[in-house]
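hey so i finally got around to running the thing on that chain from the lab meeting. sorry it took forever, my laptop kept dying and i had to restart like 3 times. anyway pasting the input first so we r on the same page abt which one it is
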Amino acid sequence: MANSIILPASSLLPFVLSLLFFHVVVPMHAASPNDVVSTICQRTRNPPFCSNLLKSARTTDLKGLITFTINLAHTKATESRALAQFLASKAADPKFKERYASCAKHYDDAASDLNDAKNYLATGDYDGVNIQASGAMTETDDCQDNFTQSPMDGSGLSKHGKALEDICSIILVIANILLGRV
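ok and heres what got predicted. didnt touch it at all, straight out
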C-alpha cells in the first residue's frame, strides 16, 4: 500500500516543477514584446522613455535587451563626453569652461564604466553589469550637479545626461531581472 502512494506522488514532482518553470521563467522570455517591455519599464526612472527605447530594440530576449541598452548607453556617454569637450573649448566664461571640462571627465569615466559593463555581460556577471551601470549613473549625476547653481547651462548637455541616466536605469532593471531579484 505504501509503495502505491509513493509512486504517484513521485511522478507528480516533475509535473509540478514544470508548472513552476513555465509559470515563472518562460513568461519573461516567451511573452509578447509589450509584456516584456511593460515588465521592465514600469520599474525604471522614466517608463515612457524606456518603452519607446526597448520597442526599437526588436527583441524581447533579456540578454539582447541588456546588450542593446549597454551599447546605447556607451554611445550616449561617448557623445556626451565629446559635446562637453567641445563646449569647454568654446566657453568664454571660466565657470562654464571648468564645468564642461569636469563633465568631459565624468562622461569619460561613465564610458569606461559602460565598457566594463560590456565585459561583465560577456562573462554573465550581472552583478558586475549592475555595479558598472550604477557607476555610470553616478558619474552622470556628478556632471549634472555642476549645473545646479547659477549660471545655468543652456547647451543641451543636461539632456544628454538625463537620457544616459534613463538608459542606465533600464540596464539596472534588466540586470536585476537576470539576477532573479525582481
